[in-house]
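quick one, 155 residues, struct below
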Amino acid sequence: MLQRILSIYLLLAGLAIFGLFLFPLVHNVYIDDKPVSIMVTGVFQDINGHQVHTQFFVALTAATAIAGLIPLIIIFLYKNRKQQIALCYSAILVIIGYSFWMAQEAKKVMGSIQIDAHNWGIGLILSSISILLIIFALKAIQRDEKLVKSADRLR
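---
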């Protein structure tokens, strides 16, 4: 029974980060009187009813892939729980830094334009959900470690 629930939490955390490829951070923001959507892959502009990729975020796209792989890699380190704990803390810090970078890129594109709640995309909360899921996995790893230590004392 050990390692099952935390594997689910880490899998969901990785999928939440990979969900940033599907969902926009900000949508329907008017820049130069054209509706714009901002995703981690770049800026999409509505031109004649079609979404056209006008600006690319290559480094942010690569960072998204790396940040999404970290929780998935942690799943396969099940033999070393202390390393899993350390990597969970590291993953949380990486995702916080990544989220800040993502926000700065979106702010750079929008300039002085303020967004309302109806312009927020699902992508804005996915990194927070991922951090929360990693925290749940971290607690489950610590519970497993405590259980194994108590079983060792009984021998």
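The beta strands are 26-31, 34-39, 42-47, 50-56.
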